[in-house]
Specification:
Helices cover 49% and strands 17% of the residues. It has 830 residues and is an alpha+beta fold. The strands form four sheets. The protein has a six-stranded mixed β-barrel with strand order 4-5-10-7-9-8.
Length: 830
């Protein structure tokens, strides 16, 4: 038959297959739902894998972008964000030095994610901004959706800015896509700016995980030019991220050599000796691939996403195996029909096309049903894994890429679950079929194949159950982890007065007033404050040296108020904490943790009284405290220095901690009222208990654990259904044998044992293979686990026990049916 003739009869075959499925609605529903769940799970996870780990930035020639980094950079004072760690930040003056020195090898630009208070049309809200240098959009090769983008003249004067560009999603969702906003004014951090344009659709900045609502010139200043970020004068504070576009014909290695020369010239001219350590600066600049922007989010999510993708693929495999079993059972009833067609002259190709028509419809329907499942799953996973910062990654709506991915997965699945059954059906011998031997497509071969398929399902389920058990135990360990402080009855919140136009002097006065107001609330046992919010993934750090010891190292630090250690419940090991007497006029002091003592080779008994240098300032160590968690729940406490906030530059952001003897929910309302009485326009951010903050910190772990558990349960249910189906089929196929055995004196218990033996063999082989897979997959999971080995024997034994119970339950009804077979009825029928 010619190809054109084959294509002409396809619609007819599909219509016939549709009528056949409509006549068996239960079979059709089970088959389509099984495939939709498998495809939907993979679509949800792969969408995030593609966007987070694979896709380049939606800009012109992204492969020509490079990121500027300084490997091993520690002797600096940093303010980092999700865009990168201490090796990726530069001081603002250094960026300008490099920008002026560029010689045509590459074009440099800078950016910095920064929250701002944005006021427009009488409404004020906190939004995510991206501070960018003038040529940012030009280097990326972007065109505006409306108006114009920021240009080289928009950041010409440090401390001043007049223009703003709206993010496309913000303009569309919050401002109704109103073109009249162009030329209007908004207020950012107290400065009036003109809206000059809207960014192109689909572009969400160059930091994966942060979607800017507004783009502002990096020259933006504070209300009095004193806001800590942006700081346009300091060479000590590193807060700017930089990348470049390579000039045509210039390689990354050539550009790195020339940029490093400019960097070293700037170091020798302006900071040959570190202001923090007093040691000669030996840093060198390097270039890293920048096609996917600058972000730590992919590395943070990589392990979780790859594990989720692996688990989703296992579920799809189980779904395909289940459908293959269904197709084999379905094909058993069509052997006679196919034999007749073959005897009447139908070719093998025609029979194969006939056999594949129904699975093709199932695959297409499964792909269509998987789209809403996958998109909902992608949205949920994006929210849980990435929090509110990456709403654009979570996505919404059906797009062509999602539909194409779903269709591709469906077609691959079609090959997986339909090809072998279809070939067996097309190969049915006409003589055997017409002679009435159609009880199975090659009974023994089909029975063995179905047993192999069920064994594979059991293996996959064992692997997923082990994975779910590992994450469940890891979450349990995290919940019981000793964080070095008492999280109970502790309410926390953050204020950002700099976003409301407060200057430095007003900041300090405001913090004292809030302290006093909170301490006066009923039931309050302690109040403390800290510049860096605990368990929020952010930290401050810098180079440290110890007087009398050679060399130095890196340490995190935090500026805290009086009573901080008592309120948080951090144990005092030696010396003292901070008091109101540690004022700006008093001698500079510091408190260190035990990890700091170990990292710098100090003697705990003589640490108090030593002198350290941090940020170029000498301080006496007056106290030693126990280690406590800082940025992340799962991280070991880092070397940490605590500084009195009165002896540090007043920050535009401060977090407060209130220990209370009354209900936290009730206390939160009282706290909000107390702050509103001081300044009703000052919003409270992240008002919650510290324990809730700890749960937010491990949201990705909880999400992966829940996802692994859900997929493991789904896989186990599918495997149980497959096992039940194959056993029911085997019992029905062997009913004559079972009747003969009963007639010859076999007991029901012996027949139940016969079925149990078949089940036991499949379970033992499948469980052993699944255990091997779990051990291999555990290597990938190891980095995401807390407090246990990826090969924990208790977890693996528990997974095997759960699987054994499920297998036993799935086998019970077929075994019971076999034991209660009536031999008279069976033998009379046969």
């Amino acid at each position: 038959m010619r190809l054109s003739d084959s294509l002409r009869i396809v619609p007819g075959r599909l219509r016939q297959a549709a009528r056949s499925l409509a006549a068996r609605p239960l079979f059709a529903f089970v088959a389509i739902a099984t495939l939709a769940l498998g495809i939907g799970a993979n679509l949800a996870v792969f969408s995030l894998v593609e966007r987070l780990l694979l896709a380049p930035l939606p800009v012109a020639a992204p492969d020509r972008l490079v990121n500027l980094v300084v490997p091993g950079q520690t002797d600096i004072r940093i303010s980092s964000t999700l865009a990168g760690d201490e090796t990726a930040v530069f001081s603002y003056p250094m960026f300008r030095d490099l920008e002026r020195a560029q010689d045509g090898a590459a074009t440099l630009v800078a950016h910095r994610p920064q929250p701002v208070n944005l006021a427009y049309a009488g409404h004020t809200e906190r939004v995510q901004a991206l501070l960018v240098s003038g040529r940012y959009f030009d280097v990326l090769g972007l065109k505006p959706a409306l108006g114009r983008l920021l240009g080289a003249g928009d950041d010409a004067v440090d401390g001043q800015a007049q223009a703003a560009v709206l993010g496309h999603a913000y303009w569309r969702d919050r401002l109704g896509a109103d073109p009249a906003v162009i030329g209007g004014s908004l207020i950012a951090n107290g400065q009036v700016l003109q809206i000059v344009g809207v960014a192109p659709p689909g572009f969400d900045g160059t930091t994966i995980g942060l979607a800017p609502q507004v783009y502002l010139p990096i020259s933006l200043g504070g209300p009095d030019g004193s806001v800590s970020i942006p700081d346009h004068a300091s060479r000590e504070l590193h807060w700017v991220y930089a990348f470049a576009r390579l000039a045509p014909g210039v390689t990354a290695a050539e550009a790195e050599t020339r940029l490093d020369g400019a960097y070293r010239n700037a170091i020798e001219a302006f900071e040959p000796v570190s202001a923090l350590t007093g040691q000669p600066v030996t840093r060198h600049l390097a270039l890293a691939p920048g096609a996917r922007g600058q972000s730590q989010q992919p590395d943070r999510s990589r392990g979780a996403l790859l594990l989720a993708q692996g688990a989703a693929l296992l579920v799809l495999l189980i779904a395909c195996v289940n459908l293959a079993n269904l197709q084999l059972a379905r094909g058993s009833g069509r052997v006679g029909e196919m034999g007749v067609r073959s005897a009447l002259g139908a070719s093998r190709r025609q029979l194969l096309g006939e056999a594949l028509a129904e699975p093709l419809l199932i695959a297409l329907a499964g792909a269509a049903a998987a789209l809403p499942i996958g998109l909902a799953g992608r949205h949920l996973l994006g929210r849980l894994l990435l929090s509110e910062r990456a709403s654009t990654l979570a996505g919404s709506g059906v797009d062509l890429a999602s539909a194409a991915i779903a269709l591709a997965i469906a077609l691959v699945a079609l090959l997986g679950f339909a090809l072998i059954p279809a070939r067996r059906l097309a190969d049915a011998a006409p003589a055997r079929a017409l002679a009435g031997h159609a009880g199975g497509v090659g009974r023994r071969g089909t029975g063995r194949l179905r047993a192999v398929l069920v064994t594979a399902q059991i293996a996959f389920s064992m692997a997923l159950l082990a994975l779910a058990g590992l994450f469940a135990q890891s979450l349990s360990n995290i919940a019981r982890a000793d964080l070095g402080m008492n999280l109970d009855a502790l309410v926390t919140f953050t204020v950002e007065p700099e976003l409301n136009g407060y200057d430095l002097a007003r900041n300090a006065a405001l913090y004292e007033r809030i302290d006093q107001a909170l301490a006066a609330l009923p039931g309050v046992a302690g109040v403390a404050r800290a510049q860096n919010r605990l368990l929020a993934r952010g930290y401050s750090g810098g180079g440290v040296s110890i007087e009398g010891r050679e060399g130095g190292g890196f340490s995190t630090y935090n500026q805290v108020g009086p009573g901080y250690f008592q309120t948080l419940g951090i144990a005092q090991l030696a010396g003292r904490g901070f008091a109101p007497s540690d004022s700006a006029d008093a001698p500079p002091v510091a408190v260190v943790n035990r990890r700091f003592v170990d990292a710098f080779g100090l003697d705990p008994a003589s640490t108090v009284g030593r002198t350290l240098s941090l940020n170029g300032q000498r301080r006496e160590i007056v106290g030693l405290v126990a280690d406590a968690a800082y940025a992340n729940v799962k991280d070991a406490p880092p070397p940490q220095i605590y500084l009195p906030d009165a002896q540090s530059e007043a920050s535009g952001t401060m977090s407060f901690y209130v220990r209370s003897a009354i209900d936290p929910a009730q206390q939160q309302a009282a706290i909000a009222a107390a702050v509103a009485a001081i300044d009703p326009n000052l919003p409270l951010r992240s008002l919650s208990t510290l324990r809730e903050q700890a749960r937010v910190n491990i949201a990705a772990d909880r999400t992966v654990g829940l996802l692994a558990t859900a997929l493991a349960l789904l896989a186990t249910l599918l495997a149980a259904g497959g096992l039940y189906g194959v056993l029911s089929y085997l019992v029905a196929e062997r009913r004559r044998e079972i009747g003969l055995r009963l007639a010859l004196g076999a007991t029901p218990a012996r027949l139940r044992g016969l079925v149990a033996g078949q089940v036991g063999r499949m379970a033992l082989v499948g469980g052993a293979l699944g255990l091997v897979a779990a051990l291999a997959g555990g290597r990938l999971a190891a980095a995401s686990l807390y407090g246990l080995s990826a090969h924990d024997p208790t977890v693996l034994a528990g997974a095997a026990f759960v699987l054994a119970i499920v297998v036993a339950l799935a086998a019970w009804l077929p075994a019971r049916r076999a034991a209660h077979t009536d031999p008279v009825v069976v033998l009379r029928h046969d």
